[in-house]
Amino acid sequence: MNNEELQHHEMNPELEFEHQDWNPKRVYTFLATLAIAGILVHFALWGFYRYLDYYNAAHQPPPNPLVESPTETREVSPQAAQKFPEPRLEKNERLEINDFRLKEEQTLNTYGWVDQKAGIVHIPIERAMQLIAERGLPTTPRVGTIPPSEVNVVNQAAERADVSNLPKKKQK
């Protein structure tokens, strides 16, 4: 502080902060109490979990003497893992997800049968978007209108497909 600021503070005592509001001893006491409480909670939980492990080990039913089992029941052999129902735990996430994504990409970008008996196929996405752009989406009839009968639809399609009335092209 230079002399001018020092004189300004001496002349105006109202510019000081209130010493009653800020007590560093209380803040440090609070932080120390918080740290001690955290340590106590840590050790209380550690003891509680040790007790639960002991209780679980003491109350396990005795194994059947006729069944041969490994001494460590928490480790699973690869043969026993195949007996578990699907879905199983992943062994290598990256390889498995890559295989899954490749199969999905192949399904999305190729032609193939979904259900051959029912006549359901899948087509590439680009082709499906082209067909929707050309034909449009099916719409439901408006309320109060009568949908066209199948006979009239077939007759209209037959009239459009009839090429007997069109002028014939000259052949060279």
Tags for this model:
single chain; 172 residues; mainly alpha; two-stranded antiparallel ribbon; 4% strand; flat
Short note summarizing the structure:
The chain is mostly helical. It has helices at residues 3-11, 24-58, 78-81, 93-108, 125-135, 150-161; strands spanning 112-115, 120-122. Among the domains are: 3-58; 101-137, no CATH class.
What does it look like?
This protein has a two-stranded antiparallel sheet with strand order 1-2. Among the domains are: 56 residues; 37 residues, no CATH class. The protein contains 6 helices and 2 strands, in the order H-H-H-H-E-E-H-H. A hairpin with a 4-residue loop joins strand 1 and strand 2. By secondary structure, the protein is mostly helical. The mean pLDDT is 80.
Oligomer: single chain
The arrangement of helices and strands along the chain is HHHHEEHH
**Low-pLDDT segments, ≥5 res:** none
**Strands ordered across the widest β-sheet:** 1-2
- Count the DSSP helices: 6
Hey, roughly how much beta strand do the residues contain?
A: under 5%
Shape: flat
Biggest β-sheet: count, sense, barrel? Answer: 2 strands, antiparallel
Number of strands: 2
Helix content: 40-55%
Mean residue pLDDT: 80
Termini separation comes to 109 Å
Structural class: mainly alpha
Computed over alpha carbons, the radius of gyration is: 41 Å
